[in-house]
Amino acid sequence: MTPDPINLDDIAEIELFILRRMREFTLGDHASVFKGSGFNFVGVRDWEPGDRMASIDWAQSSLTNFSPMITREFEQDSNAAIVAVADASASTRCGIDGDLIATAIARAVAAAGLSALFFQDRFGLVTFDDRFEQVAAVRPRIGRSHLLYCLDRYRQPVADASRVGTRDVVVAIESQVRKAALVPVISDFLLPDAPRILAELSKLNAVHDVFLLMADARFAYDLPGVSDGWVEVFDVESGRARVLSRRELGRLAERVGAWQDEVVRMAKDVDLDVVRVGLDRWEMETALVEFASERRLRKM
User: 3 pLDDT exceeds 60?
Assistant: First the structure.
């Protein structure tokens, strides 16, 4: 059984840490995070889990025989929206000694969401697979319960997601926000087509504030030594098997680190900032809070 990448006790500790650190950046007088005259009606859509009962348009729902129910959608002007784009590919559910790559990604999603919660900014989530296609999407909203719902959607493995009508992640992001947003892309970036994906994100960066949060995946490939001269390994995403020598197996972590270094170089070439995060919670949270605060001040 695959370990759960999300521990609610960890989320509670991250929340306390962020509340303490964020106050350091907001001491003194500062403007309200909300602007505008209030809530604006923007249209209707199909009901989604987490929607309030009060937002259901019963008259429109009766026209569809309540399958699906129709929800009225409102938008409140605020300084920013944050849409976390998280890697939910099958390889992120792998790891060693119970530590998963997905754990580092989930903690980064939680840190970004809790930072948004502190400033009462809207927070949304888009997850993607190894082909950089949408697996799940949650529209940006405000509230702790909404953040927990986003984390629960990330918890759901790719195998359980509907593969009908898949679409590119960039298109999915554009459908979630109508104004410039903060878009952290959280992944180990061990993707077969990383140069193309970085090029697409660079174009998106012209409209939104896109930056990369790279989960250091070397630990998951730092495998114990084996006595056999040849070892068969299996790729959970492609379904293909390959035989490696004992020496090649021992160098996997080194090769993963070298590839991630190359992705950092390619990202800088297309003007995308990169923050590396690992399983060390305190180091990760400190880096994320300081970086998110700097980006938010830039937007204000």
Answer: yes
